[in-house]
Every structure is written in structure tokens, then in C-alpha cells.
Design brief:
single chain; globular; mainly alpha; 20 helices
Amino acid sequence: AMVGAAINVMPIMIHRSVPGIGPWVLVAYFVAAVPAMLAALSYAVLASAMPRAGGSYVYASRALNPYLGFVASFSQWFGLSIAVGVVSYILIPFLRDIATALQWSGLSTWLDRDPVRLALSLAFLWAFALVNVSGVKLYKKTLIPLMFLMFLGGGVTIPWGFYYEHGDFAAALLRSEGVSLAPAPAVDFSWGALLGASAILFSTFIGFDSIAQAGGEARNPNRSLPLAIGIALGSVMLYYLLFTAAAYHTIPWQYVAERALDTDLTAPGLMGFVLSPAWTVAIVGGAAIGLINDLPAMILGVSRLMFAWAEDGIFPAWVANVHPLRHTPHVAIYLSAGVSTLSILGCHMARDFFLGVDLLITSMLVNFILISLAVLTLPRRNPRLANEVRFLKARSAQLCFGALSVFTLTVLLVTHTLKDLGTAQPAWYYHSTWLWIVVVSLASLIFAIQWRKLRKGGVDLKKRFDELPPE
């Protein structure tokens, strides 16, 4: 769920959102990796003690309080549901780049048509929603082959990226388009631009949290969930840094910065200037597979959050209905896919996907901050569950990494919020901060209504939220 749009689009399109980042994209990636690693440690600690479907909701509701657990997980659910739509929407330019590399100009033009892009985006989204409804066997058969193909495609990009240089790209650009590459302008280093870019690139590490949502569906979850989180983040972090360094070794940043302002670019598509059509198809195809690979895992994660809310009674009970034959939470899957559909429509109407990315960043930073706080408060709030921790058991280490995680994530959230509110927009709803506040306020109203029903129904709320939900 991590690799896909993340690496193939964001390090390139970052120049549209943060024009002042210039040649420091790779440095911003290093900065973004630090809070991502700390947040992953927090998830791993809590996953080892509370392996249940719903991940972040279960962790924060049992370690902080039920409402903060709902806010954390709703932010995650909303952000990832939006991201599923964004990924579905930006998949189509990858298919267009494949057609362009094969010199299928008619198909390339057809894929650039608005109605076609919209219809195909929706088709991919709902196809993988149905994969999730079908159950874990089809899910596994779909996801694992896609993962290996995805890394194979990226593995081709990295050596070619380090083989070619800016001069090769400039010559290829002149040969294919008759355009001379402009010299790189002088750009002063800016901490504001670096942190702003780091906040956006942090979003590319999001996805390891989907591991935690599966909970008890995993074998030996107390051990396998933390281990999977560590393997995923470590391997992806190395892959991202190598990929970005290789891409910018070939592609001059000044060309990317200029083109990204008005065109949706992809790293594999730009590499096509220096590669043969066959190699271009291979790496763009691998990138497209990476995007497709994102969808089933992200849909799995968001649907389990809704299921966990309904199981605890803070969301309508019918949301937790399980398919009678497939034994999957089909209602939650369909509802999450519905929000992703709205995301696709929003991207299509705005003709830009960065509002969805900004919403994802705001939502997930809030979620990760609350999860990191949960590591700090778990022994005091729920000592019985704290004794179940199997990863990073030393309390001093938990306090150290948890506090550092809260601090670094808060710095990114404040930076991102100031950037969002300081950007001129035609209407308030183009600011991710205000949209997040409105949506979470409406969700909080649902929580309040359901909480009141639980109280009136005589439910022992303390007991319910001190214990883990059934597997």
C-alpha cells in the first residue's frame, strides 16, 4: 500500500505544490523519513499489544479515550479513502504514457479525454473493492504478484537513472521536441520550503499503517504485525531514496519544476526521453502496476476501521455486517469505496489531485500524532494491555521514541497547516484544513449520537473500552 503513486509521482510533482524546493527534493525525503520511522515504531508497539481489526481506532480508544480513538481513526479513514480516489485518478496518465511510448497516438489521445479518464478511474476503484469483498484468497493472489512486478519495474528505473546524466536528457529533449534545456536558476535554500516539501513527501510513507488494520486476520499477529511494519518501512525507505536520487540524476530539476506547474508528470514518463520505447513501457508499466497495487491494501485498511467502530457501537451497527459467504465486511468496503468515488469526482472537477493529497496529509498527521501519544499514555490508561506489549518493551525506549514522534509530527502538521491556510484559493473548501475540520465535526456528531445511545442502553462503557473487541 506504500509504493505506487507515492514514488512515481510525488517526488516529481512536489515542484507544483512547493515551487521553492528546487534541487533539495532528496534532502526533503531524508527529513520526511525521520517522523515516518518514529510513527512506525509507535504503530509496532501498539500492534504487538492490541492485534485487532481497526488498528489505530483500537489503539487510541484503549490508550487515550474513545473519542480521541475515533478522531484518530476517522482522520485515517477519511484521508486514506480520499487517497484511494486520488490513486485511481492518477493511474490513467500512466496508461497514457505507455500508449505514447508505443506510439499509439490514437489511444494516448483517447486516454487523455476527460470522460474516459473519469470512467476508467471509477472502474479500477470498484474492481478492487470487489476484490476485497471476495475475500483474502483472491486478495493474496492479486496483491503478491503485483508487488513483485512493481519492484521489478522500479528496479529497472534505478540503474538507468544512475547511468544517464542531465546532458543525455538535454540532448534527448532537443532531439524529440526541439526544445533546449534552460540552465538551472539560482535558488536560495529555505527551511520553510524544505519542511513544506517534507510534509508532503511524508505522505508517501503512509501505507504501513494498513498492516495494523488487519489485526487478528494475520497469523501470530503479536509478532507478525510489528515485523511486517518494520520490513515494509525499512525496505520502502531505501527504495524511495534510491529511486528519487536516480530520477534526478537523469532528469534536471529545473525542467520538472517548469513542466509540473501545468502538466501531470510521472518519473517513468520523463525517463522515457532517454530510454528506448521497450524500456519505457517496462518502467511505466511497473509504475502503473505499483498504483494498482496500492488500491486493494488501502481499501482493506479503511474498511476495517469502519467495521471496528460499528463493533464498538460508536457507529451504526449495520456497518459491521459481514458477507454471509465471503465473511468480509462488505458494507464497510462499499461505504469506503463510495467516499473514494467522491474523491475521484473532486479531482476531476478541480483538474488537480493536490487537494486530495493535502487532505491525506492533514488527516494522517493528526492520526499519527494521536497514535504516538497513545504509546505515552497506555500504561497509565490501561496497564493490563500495556503488559501485553511484545515489541520495544523497555518503557524508557517507548517514552523516548513516542515523545520524538509527537514532536516531529507536530512540526510537520503546523508547517503544512500554515502553508495550506497561507495559499490563496478561490473558496474556503479548497483548503484542506477547513475541509478536515468540517468533516471531522460532522463525524463527531455521529459519535455523540451513538455514545448517547450506548449510555441509554445501559452499556458499561468503561469495561467496553478497557478491553479489546472480539476477534
